[in-house]
UniProtKB/TrEMBL annotation:
Family: Belongs to the iron-containing alcohol dehydrogenase family.
Domain of life assignment: Bacteria
A single GO molecular function term of this UniProt record: maleylacetate reductase activity
Pfam family membership, one: ADH_Fe_C
Protein name per its UniProtKB record: Maleylacetate reductase
Keywords carried by this UniProt record: NAD, Oxidoreductase
């Protein structure tokens, strides 16, 4: 027997095609009459179209969301939120936009309706990472977790092929670490087991045809499962290393996760083989780490940290930073272990 605590799931989730049309009724259901719509500059046209469709319920659009939630952008957005008379935010986009919505919510008490358009998985979590002065600080707080998430398969059809692959591997990383999390529970493990074959089946199709609606639906469903895993159990070495590289070397979020994943999985497999069986069983390859590397290569994902502009001297520094704070991981490690892992990821070697 394995004892567990299941904390319950609090976020209301709407999943389907064309579901963005239900945004207005969800704002009203939360008791709000005016919402500020958020996006990146790139997705401003979609945010403006959503605001137009909301009519009097839209208090305006703030299209300045940026990667890693810079505090300076948040301060500008909070001022725009207050000036607009909104009491609620609608975050339309990937993790960057969701992060901005969370940063506004935690400062103002605003409710959040999130409409995710990537597979990064911030929408179901109580986690917020913010940057200022070149440093990224992450916290968990129940006030950060969005009230409503609207998954609309239609909005993912435009996600470019490269980002589709890396964002999906980013999601799988949440599922991978959830499988060995000390605070895992049967509901979360079942959701991860749902997600793995869904991603395995969808991604090769999307690599050939990013407009395949059935595959898009499968990938978004899997992303919801993995986002929930990230939101309700603890993460370990993989997320720590991705955070170090993204936070201190400004490497792109999804690509960093994608490249590290086979290596962090292989490293922890030595201590958590039974827990990681669902990955080995889903992706083949003889082991979970090798199976994920083969899958990443097959769907055209990047494999080498060297291609993100990192140098071997950067790896020395990253290994030192990763050791600074202690955190739970199924396999104990030294600075040398981390340096070796980073070297393998830098070269893009296939794990055994
Ligand atoms: P992103 O949100 O930065 O999006 C990348 C680019 O893709 C943006 O220009 C965006 O506008 C565009 N884009 C998004 N969806 C699109 C679509 N369907 N079609 C066309 N273009 C689209 O990238 P991301 O990987 O989703 O998010 C990364 C950020 O999210 C990082 O800052 C990371 O720290 C954060 N994150 C946080 C959590 C959490 O729980 N706090 C979880 C995962 C990620």
């Amino acid at each position: 027997m394995r004892a567990f605590v299941f904390p319950g799931l609090t976020t209301r989730v709407i999943f389907g095609e064309g579901t963005i049309a239900r945004t207005g009724e969800e704002i009203a259901r939360l008791g709000h009459s005016r919402a500020l719509v958020l996006s990146t500059p790139h997705q401003k046209p979609e945010a403006e179209a959503l605001a137009a469709s909301l009519g009097a319920r839209a208090a305006g659009v703030f299209a300045g969301a940026a990667m890693h939630t810079p505090v300076a952008v948040t301060e500008e957005a909070v001022a725009a939120f207050r000036a607009s008379g909104a009491t609620c935010v609608v975050s339309l986009g990937g993790g960057s936009t969701t992060g901005l919505g969370k940063a506004i919510a935690v400062r103002t008490g605003a409710d959040q309706v999130v409409i995710p358009t990537t597979y990064a998985g911030s929408e179901m979590t109580d986690i917020l990472g913010e940057t200022s002065g070149g440093e990224k600080v992450t916290r968990r707080d129940p006030a950060i977790r969005p009230e409503v998430v609207i998954y609309d398969v239609d909005l993912t059809l435009t996600l470019p092929v490269g980002m589709t692959a890396t964002s999906a591997l980013n999601a799988i990383a949440h599922g991978m670490e959830a499988l060995y999390a000390p605070d895992r529970n049967p509901v979360i493990v079942a959701m991860v087991k749902e997600a793995l074959p869904a991603f395995r089946d969808a991604l090769p199709v999307l690599a050939r045809d990013p407009g395949d609606r059935a595959a898009r639906a499968g990938a978004l469903y899997a992303a919801w499962c993995c986002s929930t895993a990230l939101g309700y159990v603890s993460m370990a070495l993989h997320h720590k290393l991705a955070h170090v590289l993204g936070g201190s070397f400004d490497t792109p979020h999804a690509e960093t996760h994608a490249i590290l994943l086979p290596h962090t999985t292989a490293f922890n497999e030595a201590a958590a083989r039974a827990a990681l069986t669902p990955i080995a069983a889903t992706f083949g390859g003889g082991s979970a780490g090798a199976g994920l590397w083969d899958f990443a290569r097959a769907i055209g994902a990047p494999l080498r940290l060297a291609d993100l502009g990192l140098t071997e001297a950067d790896l020395d520094r990253a290994a030192g930073i990763a050791l600074r704070n202690s955190y739970d991981n199924p396999r104990p490690f030294t600075e040398r272990d981390i340096r070796d892992l980073l070297q393998a990821a830098w070269e893009g070697r296939r794990p055994q």
